[in-house]
Amino acid sequence: MKIAVAGAGAMGGRVGTQIQKAGYDVTFIDSWLPHVEAVQKHGFEIQTETETYQVDATMIKPEEVNDQYDLVIILTKAMQSVEMLQKLKDKGAITKDTAVLTMMNGLGHDERFKQVVPEEQIYLAVTMWTAGLRGPGKLLLEGVGTVDFQRVDGKESERTREINQVFEDAGLNPTISNQIMQTVWLKAALNSVVNPLCTILDKRIVDFAAYENSREMITPIIREIVEVAAAKGVEVDFDTIVHKIEGSYPVETQGLHHPSMHQDLYSGRLTEVDYLNGQVEEYGQEFGIPTPNNTMLKHLVHQLEMTHVKA
Ligand code: NAD
Fold first, then answer.
1. Per-residue pLDDT band at 255 (split at 50, 70, 90)
2. Among candidates 96, 105, 41, which has minimal Cα distance to 76?
3. pTM of the model
4. Which part of the chain is the Ketopantoate reductase C-terminal domain (predicted)?
5. Residue to mutate (ligand 1; options 31, 75, 79; most atoms within 8 A of CB)
């Protein structure tokens, strides 16, 4: 199987190097030049809990693509994903047999991808793996995780089983899901609550959780998400979301970390808020459901982007 990982930062680097280590032919495609140059010169530098080592990798810019792939894994940030997908399509990297899979956080990726490739070629995945990028070419890979994935049209094919085998071989702990939209919404709910609140408040998750009224703060945000998800035909339960969010509070889980949105913003990069709270707001408008809390969070994060994001 020929595999391309497009958007080869923290998560793309993690997933791609694990798949490559399992013996598959992996090409990394990325647009951030210092990163591309670093990987071309020295490969990825990988730091784990116990060791630091180099892994050779083939990394090219999207303009340089001249091959076709069986599986394209999109792991840009959400705002770069459609442009990347379109470039790969235009370059002939995606044929009618190519599976296009994304593990990006956020909502609506399936709908946007469908405007570029047919639905039966698109797979949505939700991962509990994490990864960090310490600088161009430098990955921080700690902990373990899982990947749930499903073809967007709900059908299972030979290609689905092949992808599952690739992920198995790579030690990514995959599951072929039969309810991926629920899992997508559940993770998006977590990210739509914890990410903007910790970003706006400039707090680690554990410090946010220490406030005795944090449940009262998160409740109206979640209620809106549950209502909008239901209008989209996805049943996500309020208590399940609360349980997931509060499960991320302890120091042993994610507590000591700042969420990724906080890290992006305070290192001067745009956030994915439009694909979380902003997407909830947009769907809400489609169905006439007011989402004042999610709308306000979106605006507050955009205000902060004006202050912190370099031009
Ligand atoms: P990332 O920022 O590490 O990489 C995404 C893209 O941004 C890559 O093309 C990378 O080269 C580029 N980039 C990174 N730093 C840059 C800089 N300083 N200047 C310019 N470009 C830069 O993002 P990620 O963490 O790999 O996330 C990719 C997707 O996966 C997102 O949708 C994210 O929400 C999701 N995700 C991430 C994690 C995680 O732990 N990192 C976990 C689950 C899901």
1. low
2. 105
3. 0.97
4. 180-305
5. 75
